[in-house]
Amino acid sequence: MTKEKNELWEWTKALLIAIGLAAIIRYFLFAPIVVDGYSMMPTLHNGDRMIVNKLGKPKRFDIIVFHAPEQKDYIKRVIGLPGDTVEYRDDTLYINGKPYAEPYLEAYKSQILEGPLTEDFTLEETPVGQKTVPEGELFVMGDNRRSSKDSRHIGSIPLEKVIGDTNIVYWPFKDIRYVK
């Protein structure tokens, strides 16, 4: 009887340790997310399941997940870092006056029959309302520029609202991939 009791206690301890480790990993290191909507097309698709890495600091062009003002989590691409000027002219991104290529948009741009993919704007013309991205904040945009609620509409994103970055799609199984 005592041997069975000890074995049951050992299994219980192992299970509690496993649950504790899973909770720590999920809360502090990695978390799953489901892409909801079409704002990141063609890079990400509605229903894609991804892993969010909660470690590290967002870099330019990273895909991040953040708490949006609507009490919902959004997934967008980092375009402007604190102190950057951001501008779009003739469907070209300019950061601090320098043009930047956006290879992740090329396939989508080739499908557009009329008009630019991204309308012209400066930071001052967005809810950011100033020349540069404020300190401690990010300017983000969806890859589906014609159909994305992003910093052009909701303003810059405070770094404390960022959950983490993501670049691994693990579901659907046929679409497992690393995205840039």
UniProtKB/TrEMBL annotation:
UniProt keyword list: Cell membrane, Hydrolase, Membrane, Protease, Transmembrane, Transmembrane helix
One GO location term (cellular component): plasma membrane
Reactions catalysed according to its record: Cleavage of hydrophobic, N-terminal signal or leader sequences from secreted and periplasmic proteins
Superkingdom, taxonomy of origin: Bacteria
Keyword Cytoplasm among UniProt keywords: no
UniProt domain Peptidase S26: residue ranges: 8-171
MF annotations from Gene Ontology: serine-type endopeptidase activity; signal peptidase activity
Keyword Transit peptide set for record: no
A Pfam match: Peptidase_S26
Main location: membrane
GO biological process: one example: signal peptide processing
EC number: 3.4.21.89
Membrane topology qualifier: Single-pass type II membrane protein
Cellular compartment(s): Cell membrane; Membrane
Active site as annotated: S39, K76
Transmembrane segments: 14-35
CDD domains on file: S26_SPase_I (cd06530)
PANTHER family reported for this sequence: SIGNAL PEPTIDASE I
Record-stated family: Belongs to the peptidase S26 family.
Protein name: Signal peptidase I
UniProt organism field: Lederbergia citri
Lineage: Bacteria, Bacillati, Bacillota, Bacilli, Bacillales
Gene from which this protein is expressed: lepB
